Known about the structure:
globular, 577 residues, 28 strands, alpha+beta
Amino acid sequence: MDYTRDIDKLRHTCAHVMAQAVQELWPETKVTIGPAIDNGFYYDFDKKESFSDEDLRKIEKTMNRIVNRNLPLTQSSMPREEAKKFFASKNETYKVELIDGIKDPEVSIFKTGNGEFVDLCKGPHVASTGLIKGFKLLSVAGAYWRGDETKPMLQRIYGTAFFTQKELDEYLKMLDEAAKRDHRKIATQLDLFHIYHDTAGAGLIFYHPNGAMLRMIIEDYARTQHLKRGYQLVSTPNILKGKLWDISGHAENYRENMYYFKVDDEDYAVKPMNCPGHILIFKSQTRSYRDLPVRYFELGTVYRQEKAGVLHGLLRVRGFTQDDAHIFLRPEQIKQEVMDVIDFIFQTMTDFGFKDLHIELSTRPEKFMGTVANWDKATSSLRDALEAKNLKYDINEGDGAFYGPKIDFKLKDAIGRQWQCGTIQCDFLLPERFELQFVDESGQHVTPVMLHRAIFGSLERFIGTLIEHYAGNFPLWLAPNQVAIIPIKEEHNAFAAQVKAALQQVDIRVIVDDRNESLSKRIREASVKKIPYQIIIGDKEVQASQVSARLQNGSDLGAMSLEALISRLKQQIVDKQ
Length: 577
């Protein structure tokens, strides 16, 4: 059984049940669309009054009655004009508008029971409402009709559904744990970053010292690993002429997500991608086949015009930094290079504590540029690399970039959620559009292929993922502050300063909390800030020239020499623990 397909059917059916319940409770409410989505479903409603928490409970009770009646769902066809009259008679103006956009002479209709609820819908659905054994309405949000800010604002009710109550209970438990791990809440607790919506703008991240330190650790890791693998560091401007984006195809395919402005009456754009800049560097000199592959790497900050409604902490922003690389190579080098990038991604995710990766191969979308022949070659090259590595992967039909197919890597966190991270994209198009060339063995000028790839993807999203994966309890090597030294009394401050200096000499990140507060309060605050090690210094420690160490979880390591502590810390950092 294709469980994913069946669960989508179940959730789509539950969306219909919810819409039916809403209209039974508030008959004047207009329904719009209600699809299954990842982990659940939603339906958008046009209702004058806002849905309250009490309303959601009423809807759930009504849905339970509909489910318990075990009503069948049946599909039929209706001529377009007849369907328009039918829905117009019910004052379902949104359905009429949807039908106007359908070119087929007949439309698909789904009926619940004996017509208690009739919806314009292609399906698919489960056979009857009784198959829904566990469901829950989760939240209400605003949503513009068809995602257009010029159209009416609707109310979107989100829910989820499962084939068993046990599965629902497990999912709700996961949601509860996810709420505790929310990176925005933990970021406030650890003083990592802030978004100054009113004064600076939504979706723009200000890293505070602790957050900037965490980011620097990740950036240093990225630079070191790329240099080990033969990449060359480059840096490109944040603004580029508009005509560059015309050549690349971004102006045609991505303009609504870009920031354009005028300089000396000429169009410029803030870069949403780093690829054109890397292409210009490659093109700056004559290249030989002996030079290939050429690998350029940049921690490049880009800006994209995301709608306000989808912004979410570090996970969806308008300004972010990509660990972006572009590899220029010959077609026969693609397979090995992609395999090497796959190894790079797996090693990196392992180092950061992620053991489980899900892989998808995304193929040619409906709106694409370039030739089908090149698309087929690019797709085959990516597939060959995955199969040579004996990796399992899913096909994500039609979700490639406009210029080429891609492999996406999704990591699984500590509570089982998937997060998008690395990507590898195979591009025959942009090298042609920018007229890139290298000289082959016979002296002919030949167009190279280009791989776009990122390991983390967006540093912002990856940092948000790390925060939630570890719930802020970072392993020692990642912790912004690794050690907190807490002198008991003022007379212990001098020895605390000596310990701090010794730790800093071996690159341990350390703070001293010598505030005039109780010892228990300072220990508690160091634990709340999730600092891995706390060093307590009192009379015994000063007299013996030792330190008393305890872990963030409260485990007491007892007294030890400073050398022993440093050895322990350094080994833990090397082991990335």
